[in-house]
Specification:
Layout: H1 4-10, H2 22-25, H3 28-43, E1 63-66, E2 72-80, E3 89-92, E4 97-101, H4 108-123, H5 125-128, H6 130-140, H7 147-152, H8 154-173, H9 179-195, H10 198-202, H11 224-242, H12 245-256
Parallel strand pairs: 2-4
Antiparallel strand pairs: 1-2, 3-4
Helix pairs in contact: 1-12, 4-8
């Protein structure tokens, strides 16, 4: 059994989370609205590869932040149209273009997670340095269809955990007196996930209320499907991390910062 006290002690090791500044993330909503307004016009152009994206004049130099070394970053947003591509977005760190694949554009919460995920890549020195990244990718790189290897790669682990930790932290902070009970239930679930298969944990009725921790949406019945989908997707990733003890330990350290 994973004990809460043990996890809290691990925080002293100062496991680092790449944090996208909130004022930068706040620009995601206006970006989402604008992309939806021009989406049909861009899609009419036909297939657009991510190597030659459509860049609207209003999306140039859209995000401004710093990487982990303190260097200024100016990120342009590019749009492409490729239903056969691996996913909803990419980050071109050589040209500093955050790429959005329009066929995968869904609800705002998923979009915000995507933006945060890609901006974490933009801030990450091990991704920005083409020589370091090339060597790392040769050993540990994978495309999304190689799911387990993909989510365990060092750069994807960082990019996936950032929005996940932020959502759990935000949810725990808004539930007041229920925070302690949800925290204990979360720790219990994470302990069981290490030894039980994914479906067993997801379908455990005792843990189903935890789905609300994995969404920024209001805890209302009409948002349940959204919360459940996010919960199921994140549990699948966490289960992969349990298979690598050092990685799971780092994940638990990051989750402990939300308590």
């Amino acid at each position: 059994m994973i004990k809460l006290a043990d996890i809290l002690r691990e925080v002293a090791l100062e496991e680092k989370i790449i944090q996208v500044p909130q004022e930068v993330l706040d620009k995601s909503k206006s970006l989402y609205d604008y992309v939806n307004r021009i989406k049909d016009r861009v899609l009419k152009k036909g297939t657009i590869q991510y190597t030659k994206p459509h860049i609207d004049s209003k999306l140039k130099n859209y995000f401004q932040l710093k990487d982990l070394k303190g260097t200024d970053l100016i990120i342009t947003v590019g749009l492409y149209n490729d239903p056969e591509d691996a996913g909803a977005g990419r980050m071109d760190t050589t040209k500093d273009v955050l790429l959005i694949n329009l066929p995968f554009l869904k609800d705002y919460e998923e979009f915000e997670d995507l933006i945060e995920h890609e901006l974490v890549h933009a801030m990450d020195p091990k991704v920005r340095d083409v020589h370091i990244f090339g060597k790392m990718y040769a050993k540990k790189g994978a495309e999304p269809d190689q799911f387990e290897k993909y989510v365990k790669s060092p750069w994807e682990f960082d990019a996936f955990t950032a929005p996940l930790v932020n959502k759990i932290k935000a949810s725990l902070n808004k539930i007041g007196d229920q925070k302690q009970s949800y925290t204990k239930l979360l720790i219990q679930m994470l302990s069981d996930l290490k030894t039980q298969d994914t479906n067993t944990v997801i379908q455990n009725e005792e843990y189903m209320p935890l789905a609300w921790l994995f969404t920024k949406a209001d805890w209302k019945e009409e948002n349940w499907d959204q919360a459940w989908s996010a919960y199921s997707n994140e549990i699948a990733k966490i289960k992969v991390w349990t298979t690598k003890p050092t990685l799971y330990k780092r994940f638990l350290q990051r989750i402990a910062t939300t308590f």
